[in-house]
Amino acid sequence: MKDFLQSYSIVFRGLSAGEHIFWFTMTDKFFSFFPESEIKKARIRVKSILKVSGGSLQITTLMKGKTWMPCDLCLEEMELPIKYKTLLNVKFAEVASDISDVDDTITLSDSDNEISMAQHFYEYAHLRLPIKRVHKKNSEGKLRCDANMIQLLKSYSGETSAQKDSQSVDPRWEQLKNIKLN
Ligand SMILES: [Zn+2]
To answer: What digits encode the pLDDT tens for the residues 83-129?
Structure first.
């Protein structure tokens, strides 16, 4: 398990000054190592450009791909594009610190040979997720949501108030109770 995330590392020791390109792919497997991940399904290509100059490193990361998440309204899976570009600065000191500060600088120990990017990639992928995830509208201005599911969810939200008002249970609510949402 650790070995897998280890493969998302950039080995910089011994590289000449200049730019070096590293490619990675993030899929469902990658995100499964982060139990708190909002992303479960994804296909993202990652290009990291490492710039070696003097005693410092700069890593420009470009992400492009797709993730699939449930729509907030109808719960049906929908496709969300992911596109992100960011810069990480790497400094060296006697004691390493993996916490990036305000200007996205991390500190590695003088004895480090590589930088683990897994946690950074994980965070980058989540940074640009839209807060509201709903199906887009079609050409007629209607949401592309699963109409049947919306109807069902509406019935469920109506169920509680209906039962409060009356002791008798409408047989239609009874039928809905037997339908599992997942
Ligand atoms: Zn929807």
So the answer is: 999 999 999 888 776 665 556 889 999 899 999 999 999 999 999 88
* d(CA 75, ligand 1 centre) in Å: 6
Domain ranges of the chain: 2-127, 147-177
- How far apart are the CA of 143 and the centre of ligand 1, in A? 7
pLDDT at 166: 47
How many angstroms is it from 146 CA to the middle of ligand 1? 6
Provide DSSP, the chain: -HHHHHTSEEE-TTPPSEEEEEEEEEEHHHHHT-TT-S--EEEEEEEEEEEEETTEEEEEEEEEEEEEEE-TTT--EEEEEEEEEEEEEEEEESS-B----TT-EEEEETT--EEE-HHHHHHHHHHT--SS--PPB-TTS-B-S-HHHHHHHHHHHHHHHHHHH-SSPPHHHHHHHT----
Whole-model pTM?
0.77
